[in-house]
Write a structure and sequence with these properties.
The chain is mostly helical. It has three helices and no strands. The radius of gyration is 18 Å and the shape is elongated. The mean pLDDT is 82.
């Protein structure tokens, strides 16, 4: 009885982790793309410049998540 519940919980947790990791990678790609595109316009508008400078607050944690995902995939393959 206990092993069945634990196995089900593990399967659900891994499914959720993979879903959230896909969302994190898509968010990272989107923010990096926006930063590059808006970086050319940052000299013209002060709001765009502050957005470009402030995106590092979101990029750093998402980059750490991406590195941990890649590390996990490498470890599971090896």
């Amino acid at each position: 009885m206990i092993s069945t519940v634990t196995a089900t919980t593990t399967i659900v947790a891994m499914t959720q982790v993979m879903t959230y990791s896909i969302i994190a990678v898509i968010a990272l790609l989107t923010i990096l793309t926006l930063k590059e595109i808006l970086n050319t316009e940052s000299s013209k508008n002060k709001r765009i410049r502050s957005f470009v400078e402030g995106t590092n607050v979101a990029i750093v944690p998402l980059l750490l998540v991406f590195v941990s995902i890649v590390g996990y995939k490498v470890v599971t393959v090896i």
